[in-house]
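Lab meeting minutes (informal)
Scribe: AK
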Amino acid sequence: MGVMILVLLLCFAIACSQQIDMIEEEKRALFQTKWWDFSNNFSDDSCNWEGIYCNEFGSVIEMSQPMITPKDPRLVDLNLTAFPNLQHLGLREMGLIGTIPTQIGALHNLTHLDLSNNNLNGTIPTQIGALHNLTHLDLSNNNLNGTIATQIGALHNLTHLDLSNNNLNGTIPTQIGALHYLTNLDLSTNNFDE
């Protein structure tokens, strides 16, 4: 019995240590973006920062508009792999430039992704198809080009899909027709084949 209690305590200590390491990694990733102003009323606890929401263990689950936007912010400045518990990423109207990084596929708990009204370019990464919990995807009003990744058809929980006002071309993938929960679809103002 004593050995079992010791093993349980050791497992608990290891789990706690891993949780603390993960939270510190999240905080480092947020610092590196320079998207938050730490000069006034700075709190060392990132859960108290504007636009950051955490779960009961202190891990980031939602990220929305940061306090400041540096000149030419890039989504690649945010180490997406540092946020395994992220459920909501809403960075609309931030002036984001550059491409959507392939690391977006590492956000397996993501249910809401809104990167609309930015200046993102390049193609929609195929890794977006790994976000099986996603219900809301809005990439509208950017400069995205290329075809719609057929992997979007793997997002079986999707209810909202807005890719309007981009430079997407090619054909609309038939896989979108298999998204049975989809209630809001906007692909207008693109360059699709007729």
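Next up, CB showed the second protein from the same session:
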Amino acid sequence: MSSWFSNLNISSMMRRSKSDAGLAMTPRPPLVQAAPSFDLDCVPEVDGESEILRMDEILFLSNNLPARVLGADWRLTYSTSLHGYSLANVYRKFQQERSPTLIAVLDTNDQLFGALISENIRMDEHFYGTGESFLFSLRPKRQIYSWSGENQLFVQGTLESFIVGAGDGHFGLFIDSNLYKGRTQACETYNNLPLAGNKEDFHIKTIECWTFS
């Protein structure tokens, strides 16, 4: 394990809030793949221009969003190209947001993947969120990884990192404080495969965070 990752206090990141237990939903099957609908009534309005997501990929993700935001407009709330490579900046940008958030990551190998979290991005020493959250990969393979029901370690944000999914010291998606390095592993929360192909560690080219209204 590379040094930048092994220096982290893993045990402290594995704590979760007891209040999260009441927020969990019935788990869906861990692997779900759906073809996007091209019905014009289902095409969302997109406020902001994505550097990394194509419209067919937006449609694919839109058809897998939680029911409460199906058909909602997409808004580009944070982009590393516009707002910089800083997790602290992300937290500041999201202080007034009250929406599920989609995080799309393009790595330096041009693999595209990310997560949908059921709430706004925020700092919290405990894990938060609900079973509406999921991981996804888009390139080279499209796949949705829904909540497995095995634990409730959905999302955690600290000054050092942002994590989606965990279990037994593994993280579904881990992003460092500089939005530069990341790690993706199979984890219990989503029963996912690593999102970035055969390598667990990746370097970030671009991150976009989208909210819904």
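CB comment: The first helix runs from residue 3 to 6.
No objections, moving on.
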